[in-house]
Amino acid sequence: MTEKTHKAGFVNIIGKPNVGKSTLMNVLVGERLSIISSKAQTTRHRILGLMNGDDYQIVFSDTPGMLKPKYELHKSMMSFVNLSLEDADVIVFVTDLYETDNEIEEVIEKINHAGAPVLLVINKIDLSKENKLEEVTQYWTERIKADTVIPVSALENFNIERIMQEILDRLPVHPPYYDKEELTDRPERFFASEIIREKIFTNYKKEIPYSTEVAIDQFTEDDKLIRIRAIIFVERSSQKGIIIGDKGKAIKHVGIQSREALEAFFGKQVYLETHVKVEDDWRKNKNKLRKFGYDQ
Ligand code: GDP
Ligand code: K
Ligand code: MG
User: Fold this and answer.
1) How many Å apart are CA 53 and CA 155, to the nearest integer?
2) Which phi and psi (to 5°) does residue 269 adopt?
3) How many whole angstroms separate alpha carbon 205 and alpha carbon 125?
4) Is the pLDDT of residue 16 over 80?
5) Averaged pLDDT, 226-249
6) How many Å lie between the centroid of ligand 2 and the Cα of residue 294?
7) In the predicted model, what is the mean pLDDT of residues 119-133?
8) Nearest protein Cα to ligand 1, atom 18
9) Which of 65, 97, 117, 207 is within CB 3.0–4.6 Å of 17 for a Cys-Cys bond?
10) Is the pLDDT confidence value at 107 over 90?
């Protein structure tokens, strides 16, 4: 490899909630960096995942789903999406067989004017019925100015190499942006809080996951063990009761699942302590959002 032929660039994954953006980023990067749930708006931040080859570095970013902002947290989430349109070398627009462009016409306008080549990825084709893919392809190609259309299944790892090839074909010649040993730009604490947040998304119903934020109060590591103390913030005391559950059963369950996932992620034994606290209406308050790391 010489510096003159090394390719590097920002590849930004965007699309509506729940189409499989985070699942796709994880299979592309080969690591479980981004949390996944069947609920919309699981991803709140922009998360970078690096894919390093001898002569290339792809900087993927997974983004929150595109939506019309309804409260301050949403505004912050959408600013991550807009930012990711500005610095993209390649845009991967993900949709599935069922989504339409309702509510996101403005963002689609921005994508079409962003200047970066757009790969239109149609995900979840494992669920495809006859003619559905054809119909969906036509629908989206009329709306998005795409370079190419790639039907995939992120869940079943189908046609993922094709995305890789299309990206590499369009990646600019550039030195690496990040250390080539790195996998992500995020600190370990961030992943610890995200993993716990994922378990909250998969264990609780309705408003609870959306009202919850996780902060890591302590993260210490020695040869054998990582000690993590997590504070689970909710918006009201009634929600605190639901998180804890009858005789503490619910929080215990989340704790066990989180610890197992943390151990798998860090490849080390984890001791996890969780506390639940009320932070009134944190989603609507700019200062509180800043405290939780939503600075945009
Ligand atoms: P995001 O909101 O766009 O980041 O979507 P997620 O990655 O969180 O996935 C949303 C849901 O779709 C989860 O339940 C995933 O397991 C599911 N999913 C993702 N990709 C596929 C796929 O290729 N096929 C099927 N059947 N489900 C998928
Ligand atoms: K989701
Ligand atoms: Mg996501």
Assistant:
1) 24
2) -65, 140
3) 28
4) yes
5) 96
6) 19
7) 93
8) 20
9) 65
10) no
Confirm if 185 and 178 have CB atoms less than 8 A apart.
Answer: yes
Query: How far is 232 from 191, CA to CA, in rounded Å?
Result: 15
* 243 belongs to an annotated ligand binding site: no
- For the segment 93-112, the average pLDDT, to the nearest whole number, is 91
The region, left, alpha or beta by phi > 0 then psi within -120 to 50, assigned to residue 267 is left
Look at 292 and 196; give whichever has higher pLDDT: 196
Does 123 contact ligand 1 (Cβ within 6 A)?
A: yes
Strand order of the β-sheet with 7-15 is 47-53, 56-62, 7-15, 90-95, 118-122, 148-151
Per DSSP, the residues of 109-141 read HHHHHS-S-EEEEE--GGGPPTTHHHHHHHHHH
pTM above 0.90, yes or no: no
Paired tokens of 104: 């996101």
Q: Which domains are present in the chain?
A: 7-170 (3.40.50.300), 188-291 (3.30.300.20)
Task: Compute, in angstroms, the gap from residue 55 CA to the centroid of ligand 1.
Answer: 31
> What's the gap in Å between 218 CA and the centre of ligand 2?
27
pLDDT in tens, 188-203: 999 999 999 999 999 9
Please identify, by atom number, the ligand 1 atom nearest to the C-alpha of residue 39: 10
CB 47 within 8 A of CB 186: yes
Among the bound ligands, the one closest to the CA of 63: 3
Whether 43 lines ligand 1, by a CB cut-off of 6 Å, is yes
Structure tokens at 112: 């079409």
Ligand nearest to the CA of 23: 1
Query: What per-residue confidence (pLDDT) applies to 1?
Result: 55
Q: How many CB atoms lie within 10 A of CB 206?
A: 9
Ligand 1 pocket residue status of 44, Cβ below 6 Å: no
Residue 96 clears pLDDT 60, i.e. is over it: yes
Q: What pLDDT does 75 receive?
A: 86
Compute, in angstroms, the gap from residue 293 CA to the centroid of ligand 2. Answer: 20
